[in-house]
Each structure stands twice: as structure tokens, then as C-alpha cells.
Amino acid sequence: MKKLNLVGSVIPLVLALSGCGGDESVSWGLDRIDGVVDEKYTYENTGEGSVIYILDSGLNLGNEAVKKEFTNKDGTLRAEIFYDYNEQLDPSDPDYVVRGDSDYGRDCTGSGHGSQVASIAASNTYGVAKGATVRIVKITEGCKPAGNIDYMIQSFNYLADNGNSGDIVNMSYGHKDTSWNNQQEHMRCIMSNIPDTPYHVLAAIDPADRTTQEMREFQAYELEQSIVRANEAGIIVVLPAGNDGCDTANYMNVRLEEAFVVGATTNDLLSSGKDGITIEVNSESVLGQNNTRTGDNISAYAPGQALKTMAADGSAGLGGWTSMAAPHIAGVFAVACETFPEICSDKDLVSSGFAYDVLRDTGVDTVVNFDGESLTDENHKAKFIQQIW
């Protein structure tokens, strides 16, 4: 048993356990994240008492199959539609809803993105933290396949003012990029990875008119500031790194040290004891696979390819990319906060980065890129995080 020193006290940190819980025939992601690849998910704690906010496309809690995934053995429901921003729309808008409507918080985006994310974080079948409280915040307008940046900003500001230290927020849903600088960097990165493509094509891409562009830049920075405010209030912020193979340092939100940024791994190299990622953009050998971002601001890697998840109607589905890697970590944080409430309930320990460091320190040096090169060197400090509690 390893000991973890915390401000003069000593807390036991169990690194190997037989576990009181075990799920067989699980997603390879759950199998991998408990540290032993044996087609089971073995765990001691469930995240009971921890709260995970899922900012995404919603969840169909009116569906009995979905509801069952978040119902405790005693019949109590541990998930709720906390807020649906579509109630802020004009009543004449076809997407307008009010609390109590059957469509309130409904996940109708086709892919069931919010349903998949919530299921990986905390569902009974597919989830890491099977006892955590889940609060769904729908940040999409109706069934549109992108989050609304204003709703994101409002959400983080709400948590900064009303959340409790140790609350976890997972925002895996993206938004239309509002930063011209981000757009330029994205094109630079993509073009540099595609052979024989002249960079001067960027000249043909003009920014919007100045007034609109100023508003876009303001929104992008306002979102970052809302994330910082939330973390300063003790909120654990989990974000996916992104899926274009570029460097997180050059992208808003995921460049923040106040966010715990998660990259994605595949199961291709598990037989050799490695967690591989694919980062090449235009290689036939990785076409269609996960192209996780990397970089110094990646806090951790977690499973993100061909994962068993719950679809919007409660049936079994498949999900992947960094959007699905992030909720693995949100779930791990929930279990960690149940295990070490002394850390998570202390706003200063969260906002200082100490809570993030505690989780990072449990990681293992198994992450390699497409060429087999380690990504846990001085330039890539992130490790694969395991759920060891």
C-alpha cells in the first residue's frame, strides 16, 4: 500500500485491489482503465456522493431503458435534467421548451452524443462511476449538432457562483469555432500534415467582417474566463483535447491549465502493454482512426476508440474520439473524490492544481504515438490514467 501525503496528513492510496465490484464483458475502455486487461471492470468505489455535470446534447430520461442505466438498486434515480437552455428561446421558436415538457433535455442529435458521454461517465452498464450523481445540462439548440457558446459560458459562470468544490463538469461537445486565431492555427496544423498542399491556400480564407469577428473573439475569451472562474471556485473541469492531431497549446479552452485536458488512446497495442494513439493526419494507415491532439497541456490519456456506449434510446452503441475519452476521466475524478473528500472539498486544493496533480500522479507511462515513441517524456507529460479505487 502506497501512502499519499496531504498537508501534514497521510491518506492510504490503494494501488492493487481485489475490488468489491466487477463487471464482465465490458467495453475495452472500462477493462483497460482498471489497470488489468481481463475483460472485466473491477472497482472498489463508485463515486457515490460525487456530482458530475454533463454539458452536452441532453439525455432521454423519459425513456425507460435510459432511466434504468441511472437507477440505483434501491430504485432511486441518480440522474436529472438539470437545465435545458432551449427554455431561453423565444416561445415562437420550434425548439422552445419548458421544464416538464416531454422534450425537456431530450437528446436528439442523431449520434446521441450526450447519451454516450453520460453513459461512459456514470451509467450502470457502461460507466466508470456507477454511483455518482449526474446532472445533465443541454447546451445545444434543439437537435443542432453543435453546442451554443453562450450556453457554455452561462454554465461555467453558474457553477462558479453556485457549484460546490469538488463538483465535476465534463464538456465533450464542441461549438463552432469562434476564434479566428484558432481557425488560422487549425489550418496551419492540418496543411503542414498534408503533403504537397501549398500553405498559400490560407490566403483565400478571409475572416468575417470586423464587427462580427470582434464578437467572436470576445466570446472565445469569455468562455475561457468562465472556465477559469469555475476552477477557481473549486470546480473540476474536464475537457477533450480535440481530434485533429494538433497541439493543444495553440487552441482555446484546451490550452488552459485550469482544465484537465484528455487525449484519447486506442486498443491496438494493448497486447504489448502500451496505449497507442494515432496522430498522423493524412496517412492511409490511420485513416478513419482517432487523431487525438497532443502537447504539454494534455493532463491525461484515456480510452477513445470503438467503445461500447449507450445510444440515445438506451440501446448499446459505439462511440469514440476524445469526446468519449474525457468522461472516463470525469468518472475517475468522481471515484477519487469519494475516496479523498479532503482534497475535493477544499477549494484551494482544486484551484491550485493539487487535485489535478494527485490524479496525474496515479498515471502510468504507457502512452506511445503511431511510431511507438513514448509521449510521457519532458515534452509530453501526460500519462494513461487508471481507476484504481
Folded structure, characterized:
The structure is a single chain. The protein is of the alpha/beta class and 389 residues long. The chain has a single domain (44-384), classed as Rossmann fold (3-Layer(aba) Sandwich). The chain has ten helices and 16 strands. The protein has helices at 28-33, 64-69, 113-122, 149-162, 180-192, 210-232, 322-339, 341-344, 347-351, 354-360; strands spanning 2-6, 9-13, 21-24, 40-43, 51-56, 79-84, 133-138, 168-170, 236-240, 259-265, 275-276, 298-303, 307-310, 316-319, 367-368, 383-384. Mean pLDDT is 84; it is low at 1-19, 190-208 and 280-289.
What amount of the residues lies in strands? 15-25%
Question: Which CATH architecture is right?
Answer: 3-Layer(aba) Sandwich
How would you spell out the order of helices and strands? EEEHEEHEHEHEHHEEEEEEHHHHEE
| Arithmetic mean pLDDT | 84
Main sheet: which strands, in order across? Answer: 6-7-5-8-9-10-12-16
Cα-based radius of gyration, to the nearest Å: 20 Å
Largest sheet: 8 strands, parallel
**Name given to the CATH homologous superfamily:** Peptidase S8/S53 domain
Give the termini distance in whole angstroms: 12 Å
Helix content: 25-40%
